[in-house]
Amino acid sequence: MQQASIKNVAPKDAKLAMANIYVAFIALLLGGLAGLLQVLVRSGEFTIPGGIKIGYYQVLTVHGILLGLILTTFFILGFQIAAVSRTAGPLTDKQRNIGWIGFWLMVLGTAMASTMVLLNKATVLYTFYAPLKAHWIFYLGLTLVVVGSWLLCVPQFMKYFQWKKENPGQTSPLLTYMAFVNSLLWVTCSLGVAVSVLFQLLPWSLGLITRVDVLLTRTLFWYFGHALVYFWLLPAYMAWYAIVPKIVGGKIFSDSLARFSFILFLLFSFPVGIHHQLTEPGIDGFWKFVQVTLTFFVIIPSLMTAFSMFATFELRGRELGGKGVLGWFKKLPWGDARFLLPFIGMLAFIPGGAGGIVNASYQMNQLIHNTIWVTGHFHLTVATTVILTFFGVAFFLIPHLTGRVLTPALNKLGIYVGILWAIGMSIMSLSMHVVGLMGAPRRSDYSTYGGAEQAAEWIPYAIAQAVGGTILFVAIIIVTYIVIQLAFFAPKGHEEFPVAEVAPGAEKTPAILENFKFWGVIVAALIIFAYTMPIIDILRNSPLGSTGFTPW
Ligand code: HEM
Ligand SMILES: [Cu+2]
Question: Out of 170, 278, 397, 476, which residue is the most buried by the measure of CB atoms under 10 Å away?
Answer without folding.
Answer: 397
